[in-house]
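Could someone model NAP with this protein?
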Amino acid sequence: MAIATINPTTGETLNSFESLSDAQVKDAVSLAHKAFGDYRKTSFKQRSEWMYKAAEILEQDKADFAQIMTLEMGKPYKSALAEVSKCALVCRYYADKAAEFLGDVSIETDASHSYVSYQPLGIVLAVMPWNFPFWQVFRFAAPALMAGNVGLLKHASNVPQCALAIEKIIHRAGFPQGVFQSLLISSDKVANIIADERVKAATLTGSEGAGASLAAAAGKHIKKTVLELGGSDPFIVLASADLEAAAVTGTTARMLNNGQSCIAAKRFIVVEAVADKFEKLLLDKFHALKIGDPMQMDTDIGPLATHDILQELDEQVQKSINNGAEALLGGKPLLNMKGNYYPPTILTNISPDSATAKEEFFGPVAMLFRVKDIDEAIQLANNTPFGLGASAWTSDTEEQQRLISEIEAGAVFINGLVKSDPRMPFGGTKLSGYGRELSIQGIHEFVNVKTVWVK
Ligand code: NAP
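Reply:
Sure, complex below.
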């Protein structure tokens, strides 16, 4: 895949970049290794000051960063602005909390003094996706750098300018040279970086294929990994739900980021008793969305990030329709528009056991299933290889408890939108990956939990 900025709104190639050579990658690893030697000894106070400064830069130049994101991957500019603010939030969160999360934990034993000490590992490689090109990186970088690690970023090939802008922010904030570097490389160089003895761990957010390949390379060298992979999240609506609120949130949950979010609601599972009503509400809300230039503040849906994504989504939808599904709305790319535009789409009558019913649709396509009762809803919700997040709507507390306990996912949100929040752990089960980002769990992923015993 070429490393280039191709504007998804126009199809125009705006900038392309040479991939780093093997020798340049080696130099970057050497620089990171050297930087770690001193950086690991810096105090939490010093790292916090730099991290606060990074948050300040993000907010100061928010408009510029948001513009780069929209230009490279097509998300509505208004959501790009919100994404930059969220990055500032996660920087401040870890700047405030790292010392507490990583402080020594005393444990009484037969020693005169025994405790757990959390120590940085060294170089952590982050392989990141284009869909939240700032947020995905900052939610890795803020805890990793606060813990005293140094980072190497291999960003997705279609967001090179985002990758370079992030590296610059971290340097401008005052972090020493080499503490965070963006490597403009293709994915075939990842395994060699992992094989380098100086690289201690890796994290990947992206597809299952990429995750499996990174984990295999890391497994070969016994290195720790965290994987944040795809999802086909259920959005369950039971009889006592507030249907209007569910339809409003369901629309946001499906359409966020032009439908390209791992935790987007992808399968709407609705009990028969309220299915007609909910279907109508959802149709109305999808109808009302404004498709257009992502730079305009009133645009809800911009283009998909790349032409390949548009084609893949179209193939999935056509496959579903050929297998008997019906498109209540949309169902075909918007060929009259210049960029990679796909309209809000609702598919019904999908056979729950068909291959496409279990796949992730990475675009503005909702699958709508009707079920008899909560048992069938839970069974269908779990009938997927993924397990990232689930949103479930009911005002019945017993039903809420069942959903919380029986849904196989890294998160269950009752009567609300599945979202990431620096204060709460984020991650998946099954093919959605393993390990957690954010909160105390996130910062504990890339540290050596050292047992100390002193007589
Ligand atoms: P992708 O193709 O897997 O790309 C993600 C990153 O992995 C990119 O940097 C890509 O580089 C790299 N990559 C691809 N193949 C690789 C390989 N064999 N070895 C090492 N690195 C490799 O993912 P995508 O399709 O662009 O992103 C969307 C996917 O990410 C969706 O499935 C979505 O659900 C998932 N996602 C998950 C989360 C989460 O937190 N769970 C968050 C966001 C997105 P190139 O660009 O150079 O190919």
